[in-house]
Amino acid sequence: MPDLSRTQVVVYGAVAVALLLVGARAIRAEGDGPGAALAAPSRTGGVSIDASGGGDLVVDVAGAVRRPGVYRLPAGARVVDAIERAGGAAAGAGLSGINRAARLADGQQVMVPERIAAGGTTTTAAGGDDGPISLGSAGVEELEGIDGIGPVTAEKIVEFRDQHGGLASVDQLDQVSGIGPATMESLRARLQP
Fold this sequence. Notes:
Layout: H1 6-31, E1 42-44, E2 47-49, E3 57-63, E4 69-73, H2 79-85, E5 109-112, E6 133-134, H3 140-144, H4 151-163, H5 181-190, E7 191-192
Parallel strand pairs: 3-5, 6-7
Antiparallel strand pairs: 1-2, 3-4
């Protein structure tokens, strides 16, 4: 075996230390779970964003809840999470009128309707019925009342909703045949997931 010079020993020692540090870092990251080193969250402008593309959502919760308002929720949150963040459903809330399991989208409004009165009309805080219609519970008749939706298109929307287990966003309606860009614009103002 050849004799190593002092310089060679120092270089080999530095390489060995560097390899040990890289190995220790890999072991520590592995202990946090797969991909933990890549998905470490960073704070940017008050919104948590991680390397995997997730982030916080901002949603407006209105209607029959205890504390209506705009709330920040984690990515992947559901309508039920938004309702809980707003203090829960108020007395008289018609929770059967919305899909509480739907995923939230950033900028979405969650409108919790009031329970339907015995006469078959919905009572609202403003006393009117011009609020958005819930895609999670709207029937064919309700959908037909929206400009640009006829009986055939209303039936297609209900079928699409049933086949896909609900709708998380009004934007999903562009997958229904018969709904074009002009109709989508009128639907955005009249519908909520």
